[in-house]
């Protein structure tokens, strides 16, 4: 799919209220990689003064959604992308703004071929969450599916 960053960011902000609530900012978005930023906002801090785990989960899940739209947006007329399950690991204390970088865990062409063959493909999206100094504070894997329209 060849959409520009603002159209995917605008689409997510318009359809996913949490993206607006957390003031997520969109960086690079392509079918290969999606980068989103969570600004440092005291109203979303946890008990140790960093971003709340729920805010970081939402950041990572939103980055995965952005790459899914970039990679499979041309399939929306025949299938709905849905998150199936997610697993997150918090590795280091996050303080200040954090960034989520998502990458597809399976080639997009392979996923579309499975959809073409009548299947309901599942595919992982891996997300790394980092703080400003580059240290990885968390990692998440979200398994998505393309559910064919009835």
Automatic annotation (TrEMBL):
It comes from the Bacteria. InterPro entries: DUF4442 (IPR027961), HotDog_dom_sf (IPR029069). Pfam families: DUF4442. SUPFAM superfamilies: Thioesterase/thiol ester dehydrase-isomerase (SSF54637). This is DUF4442 domain-containing protein. It comes from Streptomyces caatingaensis.
């Amino acid at each position: 799919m060849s959409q520009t960053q603002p159209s995917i960011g605008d689409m997510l902000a318009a359809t996913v209220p949490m993206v607006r609530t957390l003031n997520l900012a969109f960086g690079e978005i392509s079918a290969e990689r999606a980068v989103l930023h969570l600004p440092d906002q005291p109203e979303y801090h946890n008990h140790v003064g960093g971003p709340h785990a729920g805010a970081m989960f939402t950041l990572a899940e939103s980055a995965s959604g952005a790459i899914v739209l970039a990679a499979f947006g041309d399939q929306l007329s025949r299938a709905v992308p849905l998150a199936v399950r997610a697993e997150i690991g918090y590795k280091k204390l996050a303080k200040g703004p954090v960034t989520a970088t998502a990458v597809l865990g399976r080639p997009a062409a392979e996923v579309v071929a499975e959809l073409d063959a009548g299947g309901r493909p599942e595919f992982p999206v891996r997300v790394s969450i980092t703080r400003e100094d580059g240290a990885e504070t968390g990692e998440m894997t979200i398994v998505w599916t393309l559910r064919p329209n009835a």
